[in-house]
Task: structure prediction
Amino acid sequence: MLNIVHQYRLEPARVADAASLAGMSQDLVETGLRPAWDAARIAWHIGTAIVGFAIMRYADDTAHLNLLAVAPAHRRRGVARRLVAWLEDTALTAGTFTIALELRAGNEGARAFYAALGYRELARVPGYYQGRESAIRMTRDVARQPRGDAAPPPAP
Ligand SMILES: CC(C)(COP(=O)(O)OP(=O)(O)OC[C@H]1O[C@@H](n2cnc3c(N)ncnc32)[C@H](O)[C@@H]1OP(=O)(O)O)[C@@H](O)C(=O)NCCC(=O)NCCS
Result:
């Protein structure tokens, strides 16, 4: 009996477990009932949720911000600003001083966000997205332009 017990390990559930826990609840607890404990509800009880993420690729001279997003309910609370600041600090530590990125040309919110962080527009790249949508390319030199001294966005 003891041996069997020792085959199991207790650890806190993670948000990534929510779907399989919801499946177990529906199969083993709520059998025959309308499921009340779906993955979203279980994830809420687990308590940690991913509200945003970013992916940056670091090369020798330039770091490229590939993806950045914050869930709508958590926007305008400084989440993306903190994410980008962390990535920029990592680039600085690695000796990579130029950050580059592209965003969809019609994405006014992101454009305003990057401008607020001191990024400047370099070029418009037609057809960048699957050959049918233009991109705006933006860049920032994190060594020459420390965050506290970021220039305000140009007047419209
Ligand atoms: C762009 C995005 C990542 C910003 O995330 P966020 O966490 O809301 O941004 P922050 O709260 O850190 O904003 C910092 C500053 O940027 C500016 N800003 C951010 N979003 C803005 C918007 N929609 N319109 C105008 N300015 C904006 C503001 O100056 C803001 O400071 P303030 O709230 O004190 O005024 C988020 O809107 C998003 O996920 N959008 C959809 C995905 C996307 O466009 N990704 C980027 C393309 S690569």
User: Anything to note?
Assistant: The radius of gyration is 22 Å. Helices lie at 2-5, 18-29, 39-46, 79-94, 108-116. The first strand starts at residue 52 and ends at 58.
